Amino acid sequence: MHLTLYRKYRPSNFNEVAGEEDIIKTIKNSLRENRMAHAYLFAGPRGVGKTTTARLIAKGLNCLTNGITDDPCDICDNCLAVNEGNFVDMIEIDAASNRGIDEIRQLKDKINYRPARGRKKVYIIDEAHMLTKEAFNALLKTLEEPPSHVLFILATTEPDKILPTIISRCQRYDFKPISFESTRDRLLEIGKSEGIEVDDESLLLIYEKAGGSMRDAISIFEKLISSCYGESITIEKSQKVLGVIPEKQLMEFLQIAREGDSYKGVKFLDKLWNGSVNIESFFRDLAKLSKELMLKDELTPEEGMPIIGAIYDVITKFKYEEDKRLLGYVILHKLSGEVSLPKTVYKEEKTGYIPEIRETNTEETLEKELSESEIRVTIDDVKRSWDEAVKRAKNEKITIAALLTGAFPVKVSEGTLYVGFYPENRFSRDKMEENQYRDIFLNSMRELTHPKLKIVYEIVGEKNKKTETGKSFSDKIIEFFDGELM
To answer: What is the number of other CB atoms lying within 10 angstroms of the CB of residue 327?
Structure first.
């Protein structure tokens, strides 16, 4: 029977869990010293290792060869049973389908029985936030004073929906989105094992699509492997298979809608349809782009919210319509008539450099004036232009945005902008020094600041140091995923 890649390459020991070094270190220490808590709460986005870590705990507690250990043997009957998901003393409960008080009462009736094959019975309650309030209340006493042979692990993507009284009885760990570097390394390992080559740009695109989820990244990777029929995975193939919609196309449609040219809009949508573009995905991306433009003050809420509202109103109302072109026509009509669109979507950044325009200037004269003048660009000019420069560069090469996620302007000295990367983002720094990436971003920054500006990429600072923009790298990641610190 064929196993999906994310199941085939599920971590079999703690050292293989990616991106959660601090959590794994703490749990390994607890196992090594036999000081495990009676209940744990694992919170975090989907696909980041919550259930996998819970299974590894069950394996570490019940290994027959090494005893209670942070390094299970992976060859004894209990370890193999955990790997296959059929270990009798590891009980996985899907709270989404077993959420009521009756199911919890049945659980309470069974926990007093001793383990059948291991030392501990490990109850893993997945999507724990789906339990009803009555079910949570029924679980309270058991969580507070469970039998010595029982350990509970609650996993959730929405910890704010879990009762505070439950949280207070658990040892809580917050799993974060997996970094690009960890995702890249894991996919390269899998690719090597499967005999598949993949280029760096495709890895960046996979990471963007997965949104920090290792499971989603591996699933997307498997889709690309299947689509490429044993050939190397290139960015061109990846973009086609994943249906990447260039931001330039989204902006073009907004412009058509603003002009109220229905004929041109219908032709545009038909062209997308004939090019196998998913029309609904196109408009969802348009709504997402409108949100991003509002966050960057390039659309006012009065301009952006009606666009988002019109799109989702039509998508919801016509969700059963098979011909999605018709859905697109209705959205086009709404945006052209009922919604007041901005006259211009992009707003020019005000920077410290404003070239003087003279009708009599030739290119040679302008070049001479620029070479003779001092490059007056400040770090504040760069900060104001940064997001726009990244966006313009992304329009030419989509993966640049991912490479610059952990980058920040450090200083401007003698006409040179120094861009910093933390040590863990060395790969991104190295890629940005390649001509194909460096020149695109340099040109974008020059358009917004000064045509003679130079850029140097360097490794600076410590992991948790605040950037010059006032945001730490973790702040940027939280903002990117619309999350919050818990």
So the answer is: 21
